[in-house]
Design goal:
Layout (H helix, E strand, L loop, with lengths): L11 H9 L4 E6 L4 E6 L10 E2 L7 E7 L8 E7 L4
Parallel strand pairs: 1-5
Antiparallel strand pairs: 1-2, 3-4, 4-5
Length: 85
């Protein structure tokens, strides 16, 4: 702790809730059937039509969501690559 640091106890529960959340993992598959692999995404829900921004790599549009009933398997996002204009 640094001198002069003020602690705000009301912030602790919020910080604890944020650290307890698991990062959602998804399996990405293109409409052509190419497997892009498992990825960590910040949002737990990706409705059809959502755009996944990937920085320097081409962005992806979600065209289908295949949800798994098995908690040991990732949900699958079927995506198409967006071309840059």
């Amino acid at each position: 702790m640094y001198p002069g640091t003020v602690l705000y106890p009301f912030l602790y529960p919020r910080l604890l809730r944020q650290t307890e959340r698991a990062v959602p993992h998804f399996q990405l598959v293109t409409t052509d059937g190419d497997v892009l692999g498992a990825v960590e995404l910040a949002r737990p829900d990706w409705p059809v039509g959502s755009i996944i921004h990937r920085g320097l790599e081409p962005n992806l549009r979600v065209v289908d969501v295949i949800e798994s009933d098995d908690p040991e398997q990732f949900h699958v996002l079927v995506v198409e690559t967006l071309t840059r204009r």
